[in-house]
Predict the structure.
Amino acid sequence: MYKIMTAGPTQVRENVRMARSLPCTNPDLDMEFFDFYKETCSMLSKALNTRNRALILGGEGILGLEAACASLTEPGDKVLVLDNGVFGKGFADFVKIYSGQPVMYTVDYRNPIDVDELAAYLEKNHDFKYATMIHCDTPSGVINDVAAISRLLDQYGIMSVADSVAGLFGQPLDLANSKIDILCGGSQKALSAPPGLTMLWVSQRAFDAMVNRKTPIASFYANILLFKDYYEKKEFPYTMPISDITGLRQALENYLEDKDVYKRHSSIAAAVRKALAAGGVKLYLESGYSNTVTALEVPEGITDMQLLRGMEKDYNIMISGCFDVLAGKVVRIGHMGENAYPDEVADTLRALQGTLEKLNVPVKCDMAEVFRKAL
Ligand SMILES: *Cc1c(COP(=O)(O)O)cnc(C)c1O
């Protein structure tokens, strides 16, 4: 087994794995399960300090992105797609699949979206039903101020869909002070449960928009409205993956007990950047670094595969490559959730350094040591 220091899925703590093996009831028929599900959702809302209703859907994080677009998009709707990264761009596909018209707002991939520039754009262009945006665009690790962006969009009555699959629970998000109508999260990133669940936080305005549609939602599995009255009706649209949910609940309790979770993520991320810089390894981003993932450029003269496979073979540590426009150009260390501990990250930096040196890429310091000193 590799130590997975990837940008998700992340390592899973033993008590989460144990919780997944508890005895199962019938989640469609057992009223206790409805209460357990509802209580877990309330904890998710409370964890993010929001009144928006949390829901847990059976399906990997991508399901939440698709469900948001499926549930809000009616044929011909114009949707503003904020694009400064691979996931940002990708939302356009979901909008198109559900017959919406995506309008791209594409800016530099090495920096966060500039809220003032977006404000100037919106002054002239604001005929959109909703906008999509990414909190942490994982391929680069860039952080966008989605709370501020959603407040800006709200001035024009534009709803906001935000993907924070790779941000939530590792990167602070002031949801109470935002106008995000559908926030998307996944089980396998900073919450450190295994992949398989989507979490959504849905505003009343988003539910109203779904209820008031002129056309039916063109999906069953991705239809958020089918969850609206599950508790009153004692009916889920499909059988809930109960073991995944008991695991998620334990992971959520781990998070809630962890009083310096955000401080730990931010100091580890800052120390990783400091160590890489001291070692002469170039970061992909110019600004907007996330607390959950760091993307570094593949040094000249070697390939991403040489680096990744070398770390796996000699150190048993797996980090992420990349895809789409960043394929082959960057590799990424996921330091979120259970990965965000000094020993884990120091081991990873030692493996990175050893592999680079073996590939004849000089490193200018002991990166693991610089990392530890910087914490
Ligand atoms: C991981 C992730 C998702 C979920 O999709 P995958 O199938 O795991 O790629 C969605 N959005 C972001 C920003 C992610 O990092």
Q: What stands out?
A: Residues 8, 60-62, 87, 134, 137-138, 163, 165-166, 186, 189 surround pyridoxal-5'-phosphate (CB under 6 Å). The chain has 13 helices and 13 strands. The chain has a mean pLDDT of 98. The radius of gyration is 21 Å.
